[in-house]
Input
Amino acid sequence: MLAWLQNLPRPAPKNITIRVKKTAERHLRHGHPWLFDQAIANQSDGGAAGDLVVAFDEKRGFLALGLYDPHSPIRVKVLHSKKPIAIDDAFFAGRIHAAIARREALSGTDTDGYRVVHGENDGLPGLVVDRYHDTLVIKLYSACWVPRLHQVVPALVEALAPTRIVLRLSRGVAKHPADLAGLSDGVVVAGPPLDGPILFHERGLVFEADPIAGQKTGFFLDQRDNRAIVESLSAGKRVLNVFSYSGGFSVAAARGGARHVVSVDLSRPALDAARRTFDHNRHHAAVAACDHLVMPGDAFDVLKDLARREPFDIVVIDPPSFAKSATEVDGALAAYARLTALGTDVTADDGLLVLASCSSRVDAAMFRSNAMQAALQHGRPLTVVDETAHAVDHPIGFAEGAYLKCLYCRPAPRR
Ligand code: SAH
Output
């Protein structure tokens, strides 16, 4: 499980010292995990990805410790601030153990698919680890983690005893092969090769994840709690799941007793997976009894078509991120407004419209007021009956870490 780590580069023994501009000092003192290139007044040496950075203020007072990333505008991924400490194997093991302890609430819930490490929010900026049953998927969003894997992976292996480790690299990281010591995106770095998707459990439901060809690391783990809520409301209902991916909300609704569930997605492989998700769960009588239909197509078009048919009691709309940068926020809000209006058109008079957003640039207040305004203008004003955020394995460790919002809305009956 650990042999592959032997060939990886190690960080330089000499630290990089950085003097930080006054404007950025406060953020670092408050423990912000990012130090931008623009905030660097001067720097001792060039440095390689993963080298340890010691950041000082203008009066040479200690500020923070972090990992150097020469390729990213977030030049230092900050690990620790306030007082100097040793960044050694025990430090990384401590962060991993704390992350595992934070997810304790999942034990006993028949869930072996969850996020073990959520980057910045677990004190390990740029490092994501997802678990699917016996497989760990390690995703690097910064090459600074390559020379640190020998300090992180042993703690993961010891605590979770995986049979296999898959490595994923963000597009930005994959662009710099010189820093990767032969590692590439999607390799099984330890354990047996993958011969198909991995089956895992979420609250007793069986799902598959393909950590190499699937979206994200294979599954949208962050919606677990919302799937549970939808399940609890679905008895006897007609449910529409728009942007269904592999049918997470769909099968939860089915187990909750939904009579009829429709899954809509643009991706054929996602809908094939959604069908298989129902097959994997037929041992639940309610899933076997549910009439499940998949509809391939663009959600905006399909919703328009469905508006001419019998409305649904529960409509879930969980689109991909529409705003990855600040410049895309207006477009994202317009798309959310359109989906809200289309969503009300397919929701029954006493029905529930569930609207989710994973765009980090659109905050909860913006998302709510945008949806309420859109529905009002469309003639079916919303009452928001519940609003949820992050699941326990996606903690929020800094302001930018909050991205998931979900509104449970009752549209006013048609006039
Ligand atoms: N609700 C899902 C996650 C949704 S992720 C879950 O609980 O697992 C977003 C999904 O939207 C992806 O499956 C993607 O294929 C799909 N998608 C993206 N653009 C789309 C569009 N225009 N119309 C329909 N589906 C789309």
